Amino acid sequence: MHDAFETTARIAGIGTYLPERVLENADLERMVETSDEWIRTRTGIRERHVVAEGEALVDLVERAGKAAMADAGVAPGEIDLFLLATATLEQPIPASSAIAQPRLGVVNAACLDVSAACSGFVFALNVARQFIATGEAKNVLVIGAECLTRFTDWTDRTTCVLFGDGAGAVVLQPAPAGDGILRCAWKTDGTYADLISMPGGGCRIPPWDREAIEQRLPFIKMRGNEVFKVAVRALTEISAQVMDEAGITVDDLALFVPHQANLRIITAVGSRLKIPEDKVFTNVQWVGNTSAASIPLALGQAVEQGRIRRGDLVLSSAFGGGFTWASVLFRY
Ligand code: UT7
Asked: What φ, ψ does residue 204 adopt, rounded to 5°?
């Protein structure tokens, strides 16, 4: 079963960017009460990339976005819609996509930030696909980028070992149904909003509230263990749903490229879906959890490594704050 639309969106080009600075588990051992062994066995993470002083979200967005447009052979002026999935804004006003626009040169694009935490990139793909399917847009730039380490509480060992910075971008163009994106599903359950959150820095607890800063409220908080259980169930269900709706089985898949939060989550989901290990892509070991950047970064690296080739069927599924979760099945 395909969409009702005759036209869908295909990935015409892809690009990634990781900041140069690498933070290893050994570095974290010197900052908080943790160990390389604990981090590796509980998360799979060995190292992550961290922005340099003076570097921020839009710098990552520019590098990944330009690489994707070059890969697609599309001039920046041809982009008519630019969606930026991020949870770590350059600044609250204006939209980070608007700030990035002149740097990318996408002067003819309407620019929109998409806020769905770790599911943001897949949410943005789903939005972009609709505009392409209806003929409203011809060249859409979708970027997932995060500067999570700026909002990481480096005194909280339960979160600071997890996150990394980075960006991944794709250019989407029209394709006939059956090619490109075949199915996409997305879900939100806001009753879990407190489980992954940054309670300070918005209008309820403004960024200038000194007491809130002392209580470390403008930093990312996560009740990891509770998130873990829901994440495994939700990722498994939505991935199975999308394959089912498209009438395909895991045998048809070339690669499963899930959100990279924790190797144990990825392994659990892969085995529940009965996807052989060699068809599951992981890079969480080297980049940590990069939230909205996670899937486009992983897709870009998988293409670079020759693990995804043109014509391959790929499934990507994400889970994150909100809770939000989403899955996309596409022919590359
Ligand atoms: O990307 C968005 C979605 N996010 C996720 O999917 C993340 C989901 N959650 C996780 O990945 C895991 O829950 C974590 C990696 C965050 C934590 O792993 P866990 O196996 O669930 O550990 P836990 O939270 O149950 O903690 C176990 C123990 C605790 O000690 P006690 O209470 O048993 O004495 C923690 O205090 O590990 C302790 N601990 C640590 N020890 C050393 C927590 N963090 C650390 C640490 N180093 N960094």
From this structure: -75, -45
